[in-house]
Amino acid sequence: MAKTIKNISQKQRKIKTSDVMKSLGAQSTGVKIDKSQGPITLFFLRQFIIDRLYSSGGRPALLGTTKRRKKIPLLDKDWEKLEKIAEDLKKKEGINVSPGQIASTLIHKNVLEIENHKKKEQREDSKQTQ
What pLDDT score does 84 carry? Predict the structure, then answer.
């Protein structure tokens, strides 16, 4: 059985935004970016939908989804945000997707992240017991 390679190098220290600003002679704009829904997350959502969206004559559907619909309670504000995302994707990207399809994609992505996090924890736990 192959040996596991363990990275023992030190982690790079994080650089403070204020240090970068000072070095570059920059000034704060006062704009705060929500890191959980930044451009990378929105790009992922767009790409994931494009990769799964197909049309067989009617409204485009997402590959792998069933026609069976489950009732998932949402806050009105969350549904409005999903509608806004769908509207933006249609206007800016020409992607005709429903708010429900976006919700399905986001749920799928987050369920996978939870599964991956649990698997990582299990691997770490098993390493500690060895």
Answer: 92
Give the confidence band of 80 by pLDDT, cuts at 50, 70, 90: very high
Task: Compute the average pLDDT of residues 105-117.
Answer: 83
Return the closest-CA partner of residue 99 out of 87, 91, 108, 111: 87
The predicted model scores a pTM of: 0.53
C-alpha to C-alpha distance for 122 and 55, rounded to whole angstroms: 40
Token pair for 90:
């249609």
Residue with tokens 């190098």: 9
Query: Which residues have CB under 8 Å from 105's CB, separation 6+?
Result: 45, 48, 49, 52, 62
Could you read off the pLDDT of 33-52 as tens digits, one per residue?
555 555 556 677 777 777 77
Distance between CA 9 and CA 20 in Å, rounded? 24
> What count of other Cβ atoms lies within 10 Å of the Cβ of residue 21?
12
- SS3 category, 13: coil
